[in-house]
Amino acid sequence: MNLQAMTVIWAPRMLSILRIVAALVFMVHGTQKILGFPASSMNPAMFSLPWIAGVLELVGGALLVIGLFSRPVAFILSGEMAVAYFLAHAPKSFFPALNGGDAAILFCFVFLYIAVAGPGPLSLDAQRRRGTDAY
Predict the structure, then answer these.
(1) Where in the cell is it found (predicted)?
(2) Are 13 and 121 in contact (CB under 8 A)?
(3) Measured distance CA(106)–CA(101) in Å, rounded
């Protein structure tokens, strides 16, 4: 099998794997803020910005893991990470390695990519799309 054929086969699958892994890692930030697991000193007040971020991370992350409403959810989460970077990280330093915002930047652009490229074939969105194409 040549490289081009392998790319055609594996690129969409790797997009799904990227979506799932990024969403699982992202979702842990929400479980930490909302559910207190893993244990953290953070316990945001209900309806505060960190609490809202935690709800977005928990619910949005779960939706991305299963690949449901992936494009709009990824777009919203990309925006959340952009806002988080500029509100919480950028004021500390210009350099992401110093301000702790490198993960926020990566999540922002991974989610923006998913919003544009779609969830990949291993998703409920793809399953729903296949179901409607059958008729």
Answers:
(1) Cell membrane
(2) yes
(3) 9
What are the contacts of 72-79 at 24+ separation with CB within 8 A?
A: 72/115, 74/19, 74/111, 74/112, 74/114, 74/115, 75/111, 75/112, 75/115, 77/26, 77/107, 77/111, 78/107, 78/108, 78/109, 78/111, 78/112, 78/115
Average pLDDT, the chain: 94
Q: What angle do CA 73, 78, 83 make, to 5 degrees?
A: 125
Residue bearing tokens 């930030």: 29
Domain range summary for the chain, segments of one domain joined by +: 13-133
How far is the C-alpha of 55 from the C-alpha of 30, rounded, in Å?
A: 6
Say what the pTM is: 0.91
The SS3 call for residue 89 is helix
Confidence at residue 130, expressed as pLDDT on a 0 to 100 scale: 85
Prior bond to 38 cis, omega within 30?
yes
Model pLDDT for residues 118-134, shown as the tens digit of each residue: 999 999 999 999 876 54
Answer whether residue 38 shows pLDDT above 60.
Answer: yes
